[in-house]
Design goal:
The chain is α+β, with helices and mostly antiparallel strands and 623 residues long. The strands form nine sheets. It has an eight-stranded antiparallel beta sheet with strand order 14-13-10-11-12-15-22-20, with helices on both faces. It has a five-stranded parallel beta sheet with strand order 3-2-1-4-5. The longest helix has 17 residues, at 249-265. The chain starts with a strand and ends with a strand. 49% of the residues are buried. Residues 1-449 form the Biotin carboxylation domain.
């Protein structure tokens, strides 16, 4: 058995591997970049080695540095996690050549499945159903156009070396083919240094079904049933579940047997996933489920398989890499209940899903379910890596039980000031079509407007903010300081500003329960409700001046100020542009909330700003 393991990854998956290694008595070595010097996976590992600057290309993607770290610390094996170098056959071979154990499939297996066109030919020869299409060597525009016409529109153009949703174009009509081909090739060349493509028949009601497989060095291959990963946004998975809803026993047996044949065709060892596209227009049927690709690594969504089978897939990886056979036979594996996972991302759905970075000043994911994360309160979400904050995982006796549990966890997420997609997740889960398993990969795109919650605070949220301030300033509502009011009982009130709107709100009386949670500090009140955070700037009590107050212009996202159109003392009108903020190559104009005067200006052209920073204050025009 391996005694010391280096984990060539970061964040959530590194912490996940460390947990199992510790349970098995295996010492762990973390690697880290500048940005991750104080990261959770570094704190949890037994040892840690610095491997370079923050950009992944200068640290986590440098195989020679990772191998050197293993040799330096005496680690016998390297686990790549997922992403980064996990499916890099050259790195896998370099690890083996250095005399270390590679916790993953053979380099030849990775290479065989690395190019989509070659993989499809291999799968067709192995008797695995493949989507109708073209994977030929003739890459001329004329030949590709001819094949697309023969397949019939709509057709999908895919980069043979593609992944992560890149290098894919749907073509609805023959007249659009050449332009879409050029666009796809350009992206493929930039992303993968390979502009070759293949063609596939576009499936009109597609569901993304994948099968977990596992092989060992003794010739054994088993499957651990299927997962449904149909809920995606821009080809990135958001919610995954196991087993696939609507999958009958006969279809399951057929698709899982095909996955085992696929793994055996490449002499597979370790954890892998065979991904299929299903035409679900008439339900899930074996003759309408086609091979897409193989992921030669552990998947992000592996916890749902673990939850329904009771298996620790990381433990299996480490045992098989040490030369042991798979711990269980196919006959010993069965499905128990239903599991669902949601990916909690640091992004702002109401702001076009712009990434949200910065410090996690408040971070509470509750105690329910299985939480897989690589951060704690006080850590930072870095702009250098994937914005996934955590995976929220639940198990239930039925699918309905699991949905209710996971929606509740998402609705109770408390994270600030970083924004997340928690409310978006809850809305997906609560959607009637999702509950009834009316799914396909276009689910989110079709319903997007309904799934994104407004970031405007309603009256109940305003009330909660005032109540929390009252609670912070008095231990008991009955002991609230009494303000002077004519012809009415005295109550404590708070003057608050949210997104440019200012209100004075009276706190509720004793015995009133809030539906929300939150906290206050001298500058603000933060309310958490239904998976969102709402920030209210406070006016100091006893002061007649507004805090960053009535017309505070706050940065809606971290970014760079690329234009400032006003100066202090300028008179402005409602809707007038004050400045422009750029983030992720998108421009966002900030405007005056009402007629007034610019009394403060903290932003300057070229300056970098953080989310919620006060950039300017507009004092309203006197009536």
């Amino acid at each position: 058995m391996i005694q010391k393991l280096l984990i060539a990854n970061r964040g959530e998956i590194a912490c996940r591997i460390i947990r199992t290694a510790r349970e098995m008595g295996i010492a762990t070595v973390a690697v880290y970049s500048d940005a991750d010097a104080r990261a959770l996976h570094v704190r949890q590992a037994d040892e840690a080695v610095h491997i370079g600057p923050s950009p992944a290309a200068e640290s986590y993607l440098l195989g020679e540095k990772i191998i050197a770290a293993a040799q330096q610390t005496g680690a016998e094996a390297i686990h790549p996690g997922y992403g980064f170098l996990s499916e890099n056959a050259g790195f896998a071979q370099a690890v083996i050549d250095a005399g270390l154990i590679w916790v993953g499939p053979k380099p030849s297996s990775i290479e065989a499945m690395g190019l989509k066109d070659a993989a499809k030919k291999l799968m067709r020869a192995a008797g695995v159903p493949v989507t109708p299409g073209y994977e030929g060597e003739d890459q001329s525009v004329e030949r590709l156009k001819q094949e697309a016409d023969a397949i019939g529109y709509p057709v999908l153009i895919k980069a043979v070396a593609g992944g992560g949703g890149k290098g894919m174009r749907k073509v609805d009509a023959a007249a659009d083919f050449e332009a879409m081909l050029e666009s796809c090739r350009r992206e493929a060349k930039a992303s993968f240094s390979n502009d070759e493509v293949l063609l596939e028949k576009w499936i009109t009601s597609p569901r993304h079904i994948e099968v977990q497989v596992f092989g060992d060095s003794h010739g054994n291959v088993v499957h651990l049933f299927e997962r449904d990963c149909s809920l995606q946004r821009r080809h990135q998975k958001v919610i995954e579940e196991a087993p696939a809803p609507g999958m009958d026993d006969t279809t399951r047996e057929d698709i899982c047997a095909a996955a085992v044949r696929a793994a055996k065709a490449v002499d597979y060892e370790g954890a892998g996933t065979i991904e299929f596209i299903a035409d679900a227009s008439e339900g899930l049927r074996a003759d309408r489920i086609f091979f897409m690709e193989m992921n030669t690594r552990l998947q992000v969504e592996h916890p749902v398989t673990e939850e329904i089978t009771g298996v620790d897939l990381v433990e299996w990886q480490l045992r098989v890499a040490s030369g042991e056979p798979i711990p269980l036979s196919q006959e010993d594996l069965f499905i128990d209940g239903h599991a669902i996972e949601a990916r909690l991302y640091a992004e702002d759905p109401a702001g076009g899903f712009l990434p949200s970075t910065g410090a996690l000043d408040h971070f509470d994911l509750g105690v329910e379910g299985r939480i897989e994360t690589g951060v704690e309160e006080g850590d930072r979400i870095s702009p250098f890596y994937d914005p996934m904050v955590a995976k929220l995982v639940v198990w239930g006796e039925t699918r309905g039980d699991a949905i209710d549990q996971l929606a509740g966890i998402a609705e109770n997420v408390e994270i600030w000031p970083v924004k997340t997609n928690a409310a978006f997740i809850a809305n997906c889960l609560r959607d009637e079509d999702f509950e009834q398993a009316n799914l396909d990969t276009g689910f989110i795109e079709t319903k997007l407007d309904d799934l994104v919650s407004s970031d405007e605070a309603d009256d109940d949220i305003w009330q909660s903010a005032a109540d929390f301030i009252a609670l912070a300033e008095t231990e008991d509502y009955e002991d609230l300081p009494i303000g002077l009011r004519l012809n009415a009982p005295g109550v404590l009130s708070a003057t608050l500003t949210h997104k440019g709107e200012t209100r004075t709100v009276s706190a509720a009386r004793a015995g009133t329960e809030s539906f929300a949670t939150g906290f206050v500090d001298p500058a603000r009140a933060v309310v958490f409700a239904d998976g969102q955070s709402f920030v209210f700037e406070r006016q100091s009590r006893g002061s007649g001046a507004a805090a960053a107050g009535d017309g505070a212009i706050l940065a809606p996202m971290p970014g760079k100020v690329i234009a400032v159109d006003v100066a202090e003392g300028d008179t402005v009108t409602a809707g007038q542009r004050l400045m422009v903020l750029e983030a992720m190559k998108m421009e966002h104009a900030l405007t005056a909330p009402f007629d007034g005067t610019v009394t403060e200006l903290a932003a300057s052209e070229g300056g970098q700003v953080q989310v919620e920073a006060v950039l300017a204050v507009v004092e309203p025009k006197e009536e």
